[in-house]
Design brief:
With about 350 residues, this protein is mainly beta. About 5% of the residues lie in helices and about 35% in strands. The strands form 3 sheets. Strands 2, 3, 4, 5, 7, 14, 15, 16 and 18 form a 9-stranded antiparallel β-sheet that branches. It has a 7-stranded mixed β-sheet with strand order 1-11-10-9-8-17-6, with no helix packed on it. The chain has a two-stranded antiparallel ribbon with strand order 12-13. β14 (about 255-265) and β15 (about 270-280) form a beta hairpin.
Length: about 350
């Protein structure tokens, strides 16, 4: 199986090279679209042999290179302890939680709730605000702005990292997200996720870390967007969200609940796991992951708040001013929304 994986990686890598993937500014790179086992897992806590995964790959015709430029890593060890969310959602002992209800309405300023990240994109630029009333999920919510034509976090959206104060072998992350009514998804964009070590992004071949963010794709298709040592595309692999054999999509104007589970592998072994739930339904179950190589000494250590249109290149740009709302971020060692 490992030999077959390497052959597939070589073929896809060659296709990506022919497509012209060259780095953060690449406008025509290839992405491996990968579908894991998505339904009917009777014991999602049990890792499976990689040979049990159903995997298909395809080179997409559109670019996928990250437009990210910030690379600093937060070293804060404090934790936020606020709790929130509707009944049936939450964690008895959160590692991190923020429901924004203690924030003042208006321009967002309280990044201390994210364990004082050393850098951010979008806050000083006025693209992050707190809303309340009927527009909020409950109490108050976080709204992110994406100006027309803005690609990457220097031109739209927002991005920062919240250190979790330790290294974890398994974690769950959940949050609420709502795309504005009439939202034009264009080719896609990033959503928050868990990362560890060097947290590679931006078409990096760095194997001293991993990243497991979400993305929205064309027509709101949800995917897990992965950087890991055996990624097949230079600019990250997509693991499609699906339920009952149908693509799982984000719907504009609707509050969705996203939850991720990342289980680190034994260093050098294919026994890691990545799962995702959308509105409480399992939409991705991908066992057999190698998230760290044999020499890897990292684990899950950071919540990466990351949201922007892109990719790179004008074809990714929002066609009009857009907004996305977020609420009820929780990181826990146990399930949160299901």
């Amino acid at each position: 199986m490992a030999a077959a994986r390497r052959i597939i990686q070589g073929i896809v890598g060659a296709l990506a090279a022919l497509a012209g993937c060259g780095g953060d500014d690449a406008a025509s790179s290839a992405t491996a679209s990968t579908t894991g086992v998505t339904a009917g897992s009777s014991d999602p806590s049990t890792s499976a042999d990689p040979s049990t995964s159903t995997m298909t790959t395809a080179a997409e015709s559109s670019a996928t290179g990250d437009a990210e430029t910030s690379t600093s890593t937060s070293t804060s060890t404090s934790t936020s302890t606020s709790t929130g969310g509707a009944p049936g959602y939450g964690c008895d002992a959160p590692i991190f939680a923020d429901d924004f209800d203690d924030d003042a309405v208006g321009p967002y300023v309280d990044l201390a709730d994210w364990n004082d990240p050393p850098w951010d994109d979008g806050v000083d630029e006025g693209r992050v605000e707190i809303i309340d009333g009927a527009a909020a999920f409950a109490g108050r919510s976080l709204r992110i702005h994406y100006p027309e034509g803005g690609i990457g976090t220097k031109e739209g959206g927002a991005q920062w990292k919240a250190a979790l104060g330790g290294d974890y072998e398994e974690l769950f992350l959940a949050y609420r997200v709502r795309f504005a009514p009439g939202f034009d998804f264009v080719l896609g964009g990033k959503l928050p996720g868990l990362v560890g070590g060097s947290a590679p992004t931006g078409c990096s071949d760095d194997t001293s870390g991993f990243s497991a963010r979400s993305m929205w794709r064309v027509d709101g298709l949800g995917v897990q967007y992965m950087y890991y040592p055996e990624k097949m595309s230079p600019c990250g692999d997509d693991y499609d969200y699906a339920a009952a054999g149908e693509p799982a999509r984000f719907e504009p104007g609707v509050w969705h609940t996203v939850e991720h589970r990342v289980v680190m592998n034994t260093p050098g072994e294919h026994d890691g796991r990545v799962q995702a739930w959308l509105d409480g339904e399992l939409v991705l179950d991908a066992p057999g992951f190698l998230l760290r190589p044999a020499e890897g000494d990292f684990a899950i250590d950071t919540l990466y708040f990351s949201t922007f249109f892109g990719g790179s290149g004008d074809e990714w740009a929002p066609t009009k001013d857009e907004t996305v709302d977020f609420d009820d971020f929780v990181v826990c060692e146990a399930p949160i929304s299901h």
